[in-house]
Every structure is written in C-alpha cells, then in structure tokens.
Design a protein that fits this description.
Blueprint: H1 6-95, E1 101-103, E2 116-122, H2 124-128, H3 139-142, E3 144-149, H4 153-163, E4 171-174, H5 178-186
Parallel strand pairs: 1-3
Antiparallel strand pairs: 2-3, 2-4
Length: 187
C-alpha cells in the first residue's frame, strides 16, 4: 500500500465529499429542471388544446353568422314581397267600394209600414282574425250597420240577435242617430 499520510487521506476524503455534494446538487437541479420542463410542456399542451377549441368555436360561430345572414336576407325579401302585397291589396281596397250599411231582411215578407231601424252588430273575435286594419272583417270590431224595418227598436234588436247569436260572440245594439253624432261632434 502506498504510503499516504493522514492529512493527505483527510484531504482526499474531503475532496470526495465535495465531489459527492456537487453530484447531489447537479442531480437535484436536474430533477427540478425536469419537473419544471414537464409542467411547461403540460401547460403548453393545455394551451394548444384550448386554442384548437377556441378556433373550432370561432369557425362554428362564423358558420352560424353566415347562416343567420342568409336567413335575414330571405326574411327581408319576404318582408318586401309582403309589403308589395299589402300595397296592392290597399290599392285594390281603395278602388273597391265596400258597403257601409247592410240591409237585413229577417223574414221573407216585410211590412213596409214599419219604420226602418238602425242597429250595429259587433264581433271582436271575427275582426281580430282579419290581420289588417283595412280588411273588411275589421268592421266586425267597429260594428256593422244594419237597417231593417220593425215595429220598434227592441223588436229589431231581437230579430238581429236571432241571426247573430250572443253565444257566438255577437253583440247587437241600437245605432246612434245622425243627429246624436252631430251633437257629440259639436259638443
């Protein structure tokens, strides 16, 4: 065995211990850097997956927007056609004389000695289905004027109530005389 002094042996032992400490520090740093890089890689993969998901959602949203735009264009065309139809119908209704008064003959034989009574028949349910304020069915809300010969107004109302029953939503009432209307307009 070579002749090694005690101080040389302690020096070698200290050198070996220092090398061991350096190796342990390198191993610890390597392990920590491996863990840090693994966390960075996992986070990068999560970010990439999130980016792909957001891109897919953006594409779907863009397709939905395109679909909605085409539907909006279709609806605008339908509205334009409907407005054209409305204008045509309004023009046709302006050119067509619609009757204001309806004459109701409740029986086949009418005694002309009786006075002619004016009654108004209303049915809001029928007028609500008209869909347009200028539609003739709208007059059911305002009331349709009927003139009929009868001995008195009560008889005229009773006759019209038989023709237009209350159970079907009709109401019959006496029409105001023109003098009453003129008095209200003046007063």
């Amino acid at each position: 065995m070579p002749d090694v002094s005690l101080s040389q042996f302690i020096g070698l032992l200290a050198l070996a211990a220092n090398v061991g400490i350096v190796v342990m520090i390198i191993l610890l740093l390597g392990e920590r850097s491996h863990i840090a890089w693994t966390q960075v890689r996992v986070r990068a993969e999560e970010m990439a997956a999130l980016r792909e998901s957001l891109e897919r959602q953006a594409e779907e949203a863009e397709q939905a927007i395109q679909t909605m735009r085409s539907e909006i264009d279709d609806l605008q065309n339908q509205v334009k056609r409907a407005e054209g139809d409305i204008e045509a119908l309004q023009q046709r209704h302006k050119e067509t004389d619609l009757p204001f008064g309806y004459t109701a003959m409740p029986v086949d034989f009418v005694d002309r000695r009786y006075r002619t009574w004016r009654v108004i028949v209303r049915n809001p349910d029928l007028g609500a289905d008209a869909g347009s304020l200028i539609h003739p069915a709208q007059r059911w809300i305002e009331g349709r004027l009927y003139e009929l010969p009868a001995p008195n107004i009560d008889y005229a109302i009773a006759v019209m109530q038989e023709r237009f029953p209350l159970r079907e939503g009709f109401t019959v009432e006496p029409a105001r005389e023109r003098s009453d209307e003129a008095a209200e307009a003046a007063g």
